[in-house]
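For the sake of clarity, the format in which proteins appear in this thesis is described at this point. Each number in the token line that follows is a code from a learned vocabulary of backbone shapes. One such record is shown here in full, so that the layout can be seen directly:
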Amino acid sequence: MSLVAKVVFWFGVVFLTTSPSWGQVSPQRLALCAACHGADGNSQIKGIPSLAAQPKLFLENSLILMREGMREVPAMKGMLDGVTDAEVIELAKFYSALTLATPPADKQADLFNKGEQLASGMRCGICHLPNYVGREQMPRLAGQREDYLLHSLLQFKNNQAVGRDSNMAASVYGVADADLQALSHYLSRITP
């Protein structure tokens, strides 16, 4: 049995007994997603976001934008070729229903406190909700990987977030990189 077949088999065995239904999405497609985003939707790979507990509409929009080439994510290039709208909806439903892993407990007190003040002062909770769980087309920030949050914020700041919400570019305009680091540290360590 090939390595891919083994991964698909074990992925299917685990998820048939422990996860929400995946409807029209094949176990092979989910295995491809799990290779980077984690079998439970909680990424363990640097630079790769966790998808568990993200708002369904946010996931649907992101997948469609990537599939159509409007949001360029090099690691996703070609991964969504041939994926139907129905599969996109099922993938979004599947990942939005998964449980977010417990955020890291290793808080750097000064960085965490500064990030908390920045999140409040920058009014991040207006769009992402006060507990940062996201809603509709706004992503969940609470408990997301710190490295991914910082990377995304820097992309917005440097006008490199093509195919993403342009309001975010305005929100982080002129914010120091050190402040974005503190914000990322704080958000990655809070539990929704």
Notes: Confidence is low (pLDDT under 50) at residues 1-18. The radius of gyration is 17 Å. Residues 3-95 form a domain with the Cytochrome Bc1 Complex; Chain D, domain 2 fold (CATH 1.10.760.10). The chain has two domains: 3-95, 109-188.
